[in-house]
Design goal:
By secondary structure, the chain is of the alpha+beta class. It has helices at about 15, 45-55, 65-70, 95-105, 115-120, 135-140, 150-155, 160-170, 220-225, 225-235; strands spanning about 20, 25, 40-45, 60, 65, 85, 90, 175-180, 185-190, 200, 215. A hairpin with a 6-residue loop joins strand 8 and strand 9 (about 185-190).
Length: about 240
């Protein structure tokens, strides 16, 4: 995480800003699509976390520029926090058995007639415009490198954000998925969905100024980040 936010390592406030994250909706999405909800994103190991933040390996360069240079944050400090915890109900994207029933439902959905007419008018090939039918197609859509294209350009949720809304509505506490940048896996945790038995906490002693060292059903409201969003949206004179 960026060093300036290191006193709130379990806060989900950042996920609510702009268009949100891969598996949560932010406040900048069109309000006629998805309502925003927070998520805490964590990685399996340091290298995966570093690559997710800076998009490059910790020792990699491009044209003489390192990861922080390319992220326009040269010499900026960042912090790493080790966590431990237990979640009761997580949806794993690498579990094909879990994806198959979803794809069976998707196969019943036909391409809208308006979309077919537009496809023909714009001469879009079937390769670039198709309905998801298989676990492979679904996983590829959810882990697309350019998932921000629709949210950033049109304010519309990405397929991964729509999928996450369905998973969250089904009662899952988070989504486990393969990092598209690093060697390990990542976990998007939905704090508002945590059961009483689930938690994530700092693995070792924390500096005294850190108020919350554990995210669970009792601290989720404080760590979701809604207060931070309200401050950002507050009108100014």
């Amino acid at each position: 995480m960026t060093y300036r936010y290191s006193l709130a390592p379990l806060s989900c406030a950042g996920s609510l800003h702009d268009v949100g994250g891969r598996f949560n909706a932010g406040t900048d999405l069109d309000d006629r699509t998805l309502d925003a909800w927070p998520a805490l994103y964590i990685a399996q190991d340091y290298e995966t976390a570093f690559r997710e933040k800076f998009q490059l390996a910790s020792d990699d360069t491009r044209g003489g520029l390192n990861a922080q240079d390319l992220a326009l944050t040269p010499n900026a400090s960042h912090a790493t926090v080790i966590l431990r915890g237990k979640l009761s109900n997580v949806f794993a994207l690498n579990d094909e058995a879990a994806l198959k029933p979803i794809c069976r439902v998707f196969r019943r959905i036909k391409m809208p007639a308006a979309a077919l007419r537009l496809q023909k008018k714009l001469k879009i090939s079937n390769r670039d415009n198709f309905m998801i039918r298989t676990p492979f197609q679904l996983r590829r859509a959810l882990l697309a490198q350019n998932w921000r294209l629709q949210p950033m350009q049109f304010g519309m949720p990405s397929p991964s954000q729509i999928f996450a809304e369905l998973v969250r509505a089904a009662g899952f506490e988070g989504i486990l998925y393969e990092s598209t940048k690093g060697p390990g896996q990542c976990l998007a945790i939905f704090p508002e969905a945590l059961t009483d038995a689930s938690y994530v906490e700092l693995a070792d002693a924390a500096p005294a100024p850190i108020k919350h060292t554990r995210l669970d059903s009792t601290t989720a409201e404080a760590l979701c980040g809604w207060d931070d969003v309200a401050k950002q949206l507050r009108p100014r004179n």
